[in-house]
Design brief:
CATH topology of the largest domain in chain A: Butyryl-CoA Dehydrogenase, subunit A, domain 3
Helix content of chain A: 40-55%
Number of domains of chain A: 3
Largest interface: A-B, 137 and 138 residues
Shape of chain A: elongated
Distance between the termini of chain A: 59 Å
Structural class of chain A: alpha+beta
Strand content of chain A: 5-15%
Oligomer: homodimer
CATH superfamily of the largest domain in chain A: Butyryl-CoA Dehydrogenase, subunit A, domain 3
CATH architecture of the largest domain in chain A: Up-down Bundle
Number of helices of chain A: 27
């Protein structure tokens, strides 16, 4: 059958015709069309808007059922499209990607100053050490070799005074908890096993000697803890009791005859479990036990128990097992410890907040047993601050790698054009950029936490504990989620150990468990918020709850403003005032309704424990809303405080992206509450897309803004 | 100051007073109350409902600002509460947990029959082999040792005929793809490195010889592939092109003078990357390359290239590097391959769908180059089915471990009572039970997929490819998310390698990347759905999209029924008809609006590639809705098909939990669409809680229903 005459007179001049030209080409080039298919295209073209009549006639000439165009004839169709429909079998040119697509809209150095913060010198010094000899990267090694490397590296840091930064000057320290926190978070850019060993030795072990001990303990142990001459453990967790520390079973029984305490593991569930430094290196342990004096149980107290002698042999009565291979952190030697009636001198009891006289009289300046308990386990608060910081370092590393890779890696693309960079895909932007925004939000929030923690007075203690618990849970979950997305965004490359997601993910996975299980911490946060009775500690006593209700039940939560709920203006959607109001409103309303629901249950005579379990999903939502409100506030405050206008503008967009992307995630709640209308919810989704596109050219600059040295970032796929 | 008189006359008889008694005890026992605090409690008690006047008087007697009760006096308060406020310092009794709290409401054996499916004998045989000698579990080993173990284990399976199950009988097989799939998924209960090596050797390597080769290839290689006498690779992916296979750069150029093909790696980005079996074991590779005949590029074709001789030495012109340590799957020897003008005989080209004559004439029975391309890479479809199955096996293992542990592990609790089992906490139920429901949903959906795949005819090919792509992405993401939650739910125990989350998480992390990146696959799904033009393959040609629009744009998506949107009856919420309607409605509406948005962009002259990028978030939402609708339908159909009434009832509840928990996750969408009212959204959340509580006593039975032998489950925390 002869080829039918075709016309392309008008088409090259009518851009509206191009898609239909493609349509026809694509349809025929894959084989013959059925009559139905041709009719469908004909109908479509007949009703297409914006097409000139001449173009329409031209196009219809290609749709004659009995006269399919020949291959040669089809080729002519390609001409007006200037080669934009290359055959699938022709490989596209491979373009060598530049390191970065565009210079950022701001000075990356100026942004790096913001992230370095006011303790930049400490950070720089730790970076120098981590870039020096003895800190090479290894991907394959036995846990035994890894543990020894980490110990050696710990000693290098200690030799520089980094380990004792938080201790008093008389013990070789700088009395500076803030710098200690910065050192901790900075090590997490190298190897998180080192970070955790650092935390165990200098923070949990040395820090507890400092916090709970008195001069006799400080004089004897503190300097050596800071230099790693004396290696130690923090033996709190037991197999049977992890979260519920108050119910640990190990006992420390005072014997006035000998003036000694006898430490004992009464059952197998009482074994000290998961104790860092225990399997190999630790010589002295801070042991938490139920103190028994004169037959009375006085609750959990801490005392020092030698577990190995100087030669490394286990002490008599002490049994230690290695926890073995773990999902991550295999450079930390976790172990299990059993005590069989081990005796230590009376002076080994930390006696800052409680003491036992030689005769066996128990005394404490703190009357409330619950307050005494929470003071005793107070070291966990510093631990929570540290863990949040370490999680953020890992999150930043993952994002820096994924953003750099996404900026250069190309795959697929428009016909005839070079393949498209991954970060130019909307889905890829939506994977990485909101999380980049979260990392900056957390950077401001955790700097705020460190400052509050370092400068705390006794009155603020409780509030800061709540802050630390909430931000620890929020940051560690954000990190786990972000690393997963970043790994996936790097495809198969992200799965090679050398590209670092292996260790980053594995090592930080436990961050949502240790130093307080996140789900438990989030409940503590809410219990604390439901109380303004500051002397009360973390328990669920109904008094706390009811007082809150008594004070607030009458304050009806304000109804959302109907006009604001429908406002879809871009200016409004990007306005920090809107963001702050949204996060505050959600927190207030979730807490208010939670209090009412709890009160209802208690009024009906439900046990307070079961009442809380019954609304536990609500509790977690409220805790998350609380933590996220604080993060949002700190991001807005941080942006407001920027001195560099270009940095301020860039971070301001990120702050809006953080706000809107988090509202989008929880839009179910905001819609239910009537806080946003359906139209506004749609507009928020659209604005997230717009912000992603606007931020995209700055993405590499923002990732570089974290200031992670290339040598530490390490991943070959992220190297210039 | 003398203790004031206190009365407790009425209280023991008035249960409504108990919470207030607790309140007063807790308030005073922590120290003195301020006047304000006392007033607040007084006001509260004065206005409390349900309290008798006498009880109110009793209670007020304890709230005299100037007369705090003495410690002794406070003790008397405890009596009416029968010891339910034990001091925080008294350890609670440790209760040895039984294996299971209660027998399930159904026969676990009957449920196990359902999950074993109709190919139970194969599953049983593979379980037997995996429980035999040579299949011990190891937590610490070098990747070198692990690789050798896996190869030996592969040979044990092959010796039993497991490797060649899908091959024709004349080559030692059983011609049974379904049994092959079951064998694959069953190995994933032991070591997923073995599973992947199994897939590479028997599926990708042997399967491609079977699918693309002809008798000459089958005769020479197929039997040996099935016995592992001949080890092979599937060399498709290149460093520069993973997802975009059509643009790989390796060339196979025909030389008529010698009758040979010359295989060449023209650039470094053309290196074959991540090739399983390449680093150590593979001798022969199925290589995908651009076929060049007479100077013309004919697109991607596959041919056999020897890469090592029988002694294991690399062949001339071939360079191989080890990919090194990976995040997981270190028992698989992935490598990179470069070819330097390597020559192979013309007969090494797989010639089922295309051939080159000795003289250099290219012939193919498939006219469309794009159809030829998708036939050539068709092995990936079987791969996707398999990967989805493997992901579900991992998900089941993780859930079985976490559910058993959550059933016995106790932490915290009501005062004076034994500590509470984790699975009795609402948050814990909400972590594990909806995911348990998802695993059962996927079990039915993937059995359906396997059956469709095994029994496919050519007409259904396209539909089944779409089904496999959607379910692969859905199942692998569900597994990653579920394993993370299960690991966290097991706390520190979940972090020990012996408890299996280490390998389970690490090995399956790449499942969302290989055999098609999930994000890419989900886009293929939608592109395919937007077309009913079956001969068209996976590309974004506008024709496909516009035809859909032409056919459907006029069908306005029905508006949600206003009465149904407000129906909060439990019967309605649990009704499978409601569930099916919700999932179908969402899919239909998302696809309809997507088509309209795409049409709008194309009408404005936007390039089809960029038009898709511009609505990419919508595309992913539609793809997810599609996959989830299929999963929901198969779960409902599976429950309807249950012959055991008790099993049917239990799975029916799980099906409702799956439906409602997924709707809850996406309630933002359902609210925006007007498909559910705010009240209904609340009712759904509540019903999820109710279902979790109802299912909880069956949880261990449901986890055991997966039928994983204890020896394979392995985790000490999950052992009886």
């Amino acid at each position: 059958m002869p080829d039918a005459p075709r016309s392309l007179y008008v088409i090259p001049a009518d851009p509206a015709a191009t898609p239909y030209l493609r349509l026809i080409y694509a349809a025929w080039s894959d084989g013959e069309l059925t009559d139905d298919e041709i009719r469908s295209v004909q109908t479509h073209i007949a009703s297409a808007k914006g097409l000139s009549d001449a173009a329409r006639t031209d196009l219809q000439s290609w749709l004659q059922p009995n006269r399919p165009p020949s291959i040669e004839s089809l080729q002519t169709l390609l001409k007006p499209m200037s080669g934009d429909l290359a055959s699938v079998t022709e490989p596209r040119p491979t373009v060598e990607p530049p390191v970065s697509t565009a210079s950022a809209s701001f000075s990356v150095a100026a942004l790096q100053e913001v992230t370095a913060g006011k303790r930049a010198a400490t950070r720089r010094r730790v970076f120098e050490i981590l870039s020096g000899p003895g800190f090479e990267r290894h991907w394959e090694r036995s846990k035994e070799a890894h543990r020894e490397q980490v110990l050696e590296q710990l000693k290098v840091l200690a030799a520089d005074g980094i380990g004792s930064l938080s201790y008093p000057e008389e013990y070789g320290g700088s009395d500076d908890m803030g710098r200690f926190a910065v050192a901790f978070e900075t090590t997490a850019f190298y190897d998180i096993s080192l970070t955790i060993k650092f935390g165990v030795q200098f923070g949990l072990f040395g820090g507890t000697i400092h916090a709970l001990g008195t001069k006799r303990h400080h004089d004897r142990y503190l300097r050596q803890a800071g230099t790693v001459e004396l290696t130690g453990c923090f033996a709190m967790t037991e197999l049977g009791h992890g979260s519920n520390v108050a119910d640990i079973e190990t006992t420390a029984t005072y014997d006035p005859a000998s003036g000694e305490f006898e430490i004992d593991t009464p059952s197998d569930s009482a074994q000290k479990n998961y104790i860092g430094n225990a399997a190999v290196h630790g010589r002295l342990a801070v042991v938490f036990a139920q103190l028994v004096v004169g037959g009375e149980v006085q609750g959990v107290h801490a005392l020092l128990v030698p577990i190995r002698d100087e030669a490394g042999a286990t002490m008599p009565g002490v049994r230690i097992e290695d926890c073995g291979q773990k999902l991550g952190l295999n450079g930390v030697d976790n172990g299990r410890i059993w005590f069989d009636h081990v005796r230590v001198p009376r002076e080994n009891l930390f006696n800052r907040y409680a003491d036992v006289s030689p005769e066996g009289e128990y005394v404490s300046p703190i009357e409330s047993p619950s307050k005494r308990f929470f003071t005793t386990i107070g070291a966990l608060v510093a631990g929570r601050v540290s863990v949040a910081l370490g999680a953020l370092s890992a999150m930043k590393s993952g994002l820096a790698i994924a953003v750099r890779y996404g900026d250069r890696r190309r795959q697929f693309g428009a016909s005839g054009a070079p393949e498209t960079r991954l970060l130019d895909y909307r889905t890829h932007q939506r994977k990485l950029l909101p999380r980049l925004a979260s990392a900056y939000a957390l950077d401001f929030a955790l700097k705020h936490l460190v400052d509050r923690f370092v400068n705390r007075n006794e009155e603020e203690q409780r509030e800061i504990e709540t802050l630390a618990a909430g931000l620890k849970a929020y940051a560690t979950w954000a990190n786990i989620e972000s690393l997963q997305v970043c790994r996936e965004a790097c495809g198969g490359q992200g799965y090679l150990s050398e590209n670092r997601f292996d260790d980053l993910k594995a090592d930080t996975d436990i961050f949502c468990t240790f130093e307080g299980d996140n789900t438990v911490l989030m409940q503590l946060v809410v219990k604390s918020l439901l109380s303004d009775y500051r002397r009360q500690f973390e328990d669920a006593r109904p008094f706390t709850l009811l007082k809150y209700v008594a004070a607030r039940a009458a304050d009806a939560v304000r109804e959302p403003h109907p006009l604001a709920a429908r406002n879809t203006d871009a200016d409004h959607l990007r306005d920090a005032e809107f963001h702050l109001d949204a996060f505050r409103y959600r927190e207030q309303r979730l807490l208010g309704s939670l209090a009412r629901r709890l009160k209802h249950r208690l009024d009906q005579g439900m046990d307070s424990f079961y009442a809380l379990v019954d609304v536990q999903d609500h509790v977690l939502a409220a805790a998350n809303a609380h933590a996220e409100r604080i993060v949002m506030e700190q991001f807005v405050a941080g942006v407001a405080g920027c001195v560099d206008p270009a940095v301020q503008t860039a971070l301001g967009k990120l702050s809006a992206l953080f706000a809107l992307s988090r509202i989008e995630v929880d839009r179910g709640w905001f819609l239910e509450a009537g806080y946003v209308s359906t139209a506004k919810s749609h507009a928020i989704r659209e604005q997230v897309n717009v912000l992603c596109a606007e931020i995209r050219p700055d993405a590499v600059g923002l990732a570089d803004g974290f200031g992670i040295p290339d040598r530490l970032l390490g991943a070959p796929i992220a190297m210039p």
